[in-house]
Design brief:
By secondary structure, the protein is mainly α. It has helices spanning about 1-30, 35-40, 45-55, 60-75, 90-125, 130-140, 145-160, 170-200, 205-210, 215-255, 260-270, 270-300, 300-310.
Length: about 300
């Protein structure tokens, strides 16, 4: 287990380094001068734009700018926002709870819907419940989450007035965002769990357990479900990055003050340090969550642990 964690941590270093390079380069290759954006509407002279460009260090070669940026990162400094004049880490810390709340709620929705649907479909493949669950899973994968979000707002907020459509308030304000973001993941969980259960029931150990007279419920609880969860947990880890990316769009649609709206506003105003810090922070969270998933896979399926140690 320790060797598995160390290997994953070593692999994370070039990933994060690559993210920092791509983010830094792409933002600096976008046409336009951030200094001009910051001075927009002030009737600034070319001399003022040049002075602000020099003050921000944007007149130096990109290679030097990157290594200065990397040096700040190694000291835990994500930079300072051009717009708000506050540390980027402070802005992220203020917005992070809202994003965590949304992602956690979406994950709960996905598990509450996806696991029962996968169990029903996988334990009775070919039946009418299986067909209903499979059709729902196909729809869940096919429907874009942002389109579903707009439909939910139109029906439950505009037409029926049951829940608010904007803001970060009480429990009712997170219902629609969580459903919009979690529905597609519920479909993915249901499909993978169904496939894992069908495969597990075809294994010889199930036949042996049935021959010993064990009940269907006990076989499912003690062996089949655990073995079927491996692919689902692995795929869920790969999809966590999509969950974070989806949260960006969902927060903008529902007007939630999270990392998504922070990045959206920073990109619109070319607030380079905020965009770089936000993207890098999301990349760190993504790597950490995938490490956690790898550990969970090793706990659920010891064969994964042995493979990593070989």
């Amino acid at each position: 287990m320790t060797l598995l964690i160390l290997r994953r941590l070593l692999l994370a270093v070039p990933v994060l380094l690559g993210v920092s390079i791509v983010t830094f380069a792409s933002l600096h290759l976008i046409p336009g001068n951030p200094a001009q954006t910051l001075l927009f509407g002030t009737d600034a002279s070319p001399q003022q734009v040049a002075a602000l460009t020099q003050q921000l260090g944007l007149d130096r070669p990109m290679v030097i700018q990157y290594f200065e940026y990397l040096g700040r990162l190694l000291h835990g400094n994500l930079g300072e926002s051009y717009i708000n004049q506050v540390p980027v880490a402070t802005e992220i810390a203020q917005r992070l709870p809202s994003t965590i709340q949304l992602a956690a709620a979406a994950l709960v929705v996905a598990l509450v819907i996806g696991v029962p649907a996968g169990l029903v479909a996988g334990t009775r493949p070919g039946g009418w419940l299986d067909r209903i669950a499979t059709s729902g899973a196909v729809l869940g994968v096919a429907i874009p989450y942002f389109w579903l979000a707009l439909v939910l707002v139109l029906i439950f907020s505009v037409k029926l007035g049951l829940v608010p459509s904007l803001g970060t308030g009480g429990f009712d304000s997170i219902i629609l965002p969580a459903i919009a973001l979690g529905w597609g993941f519920a479909a993915m969980i249901a499909r993978l769990l169904r496939a894992g259960l069908i495969d597990a029931y075809a294994q010889p150990y199930v036949t042996a357990a049935q021959a010993r007279g064990l009940s269907a419920g006990r076989i499912l609880a003690t062996t089949v479900f655990r073995n079927a969860c491996g692919p689902m947990v692995a795929a869920l880890g790969l999809q966590l990055g999509q969950l974070l990316a989806g949260a960006v769009a969902i927060e903008v649609i529902f007007g939630r003050a999270g990392l998504g709206s922070l990045l959206f506003n920073a990109i619109s105003s070319k607030d380079i340090p905020t965009v770089q810090g936000g993207v890098l922070f999301i990349a760190v969270i993504y790597v950490a969550l995938n490490l956690l998933v790898d550990v969970l896979k090793a706990i659920i399926d010891p064969r994964t642990r042995r493979t990593a140690s070989s």
